Please model this.
Amino acid sequence: MSEKANKPVKAEQDSLYAKREEIYPREVHGIFASWRVAMVFLTLGLYYILPWINWGEGRQALLFDLPNRKFNIFMMTLWPQDLIYLSALLIISALGLFLFTSVGGRLWCGYACPQTVWTEVFLWIERKIEGGRPQRMKLAKSPWNLNKVIKKGGKHLAWIALSLWTGFTFVGYFSPIRELAVDFINWDLGPWETFWIFFYAFATYGNAGWLREQVCIYMCPYARFQSVMFDDNTLIISYDEKRGNPRGARKRGKEKPTDKGDCIDCSLCVQACPTGIDIRDGLQYQCIACAACIDACDDVMEKMDYPKGLIRYTTLNEVKGNGLHIFRPRVLVYSAILLGLVAGMAWSLATRVPLGVDISRDRNILYREAPNGDLENVFTIKIMNQDDKAHSFVITIHGMPGAVLDPDEPETRVESGEIGETLIRVRAAEDIVKGRSTSITLRVTASDDDKLTDEEDTRFIAPADWFQK
Model:
């Protein structure tokens, strides 16, 4: 194919794949910037500190111990049989996201998303080493020299150190972190621990250091389907066109021109945006609702002695003059469902007994007559100890007065996370058995903890001719 024929194809490719323009967000100060900093300390503080907290007798408070198939969550120990709680947690998280998005737009993205939080920290490191926005832009355009190598190299070394610490902490949620620290120092890590530390470190370094807004714009699916959860009463960051337009520059301290709006067209709102958009062009899917543009604009309005709020959190209905309506059917339905699920899960966890009992009878012999003339049924009892320590369990019978167990009140010791199995015989004299099938209850109780008890109903079977004697 000729070179001339290739030209339209290349033009089409150029239009589809735009080259990324580096974004250097300006540092801003204000109420929303303070909230973002507070959320960074809260979220990352919890992330880095929680694995080091112990609960009880030296047990790591938060540990997802996959090899031993148990999950320590403060005072609770959950097992694979408790997978329903994970399902409930995922459903609650999804509904919570729907509710918060319906009310406040992309507040999760702007303040609590891991991509946003770590990017804030990486940007802080970049500013401390390379300087403010003008200095960083000047350094990027300057030729390579010793100063540039030191600053760029120092920044990346700091990023890598933080990323490795992040990866180490991540693995500390799945492997005891104190043992992991010793192994890390002695470089005696297992293959999977080594892989996940460096994989998570690489992901943190790449996403927060290099990709940044590209993750939010192109990789995050939330940005694509958020619009279906928005309506005219959803809080969004919006520019007040009626008040701000027509835009135009003017000197500070001078009376506002009659033919101009409040926007002085300083572009600080654009410079502060971490995704590089101009909020004055209207709501865009790239906006992560971080409110940096609000802080930047409010600062300018204060200096110009204009009212704040030219860019603000608002709704489309409020901008149109229809008022603010937070409590609407969608919000109420989401809130009711979410509240019900949270209450149900909390009640289930509060009343959960870390013990499971499974009873099965001997299918080969439903009943048999003992040497002393009593009738006997044989059962196999499986005891699942879901507590974080071993217990001895005692079995008792209820619901059939006069019936006895053989052996008498059998006791079985079961280690934490293990399943103990024992064989018991239920015996009943002729005058006790009133029918071919009698309901009985076998109760299992820890000998050292009366609250650790569970029971299961079964039936005592007798032959038809037993009552014809």
Summary: Confidence is low (pLDDT under 50) at residues 1-9, 11-15. DSSP finds 16 helices and 16 strands in the chain.
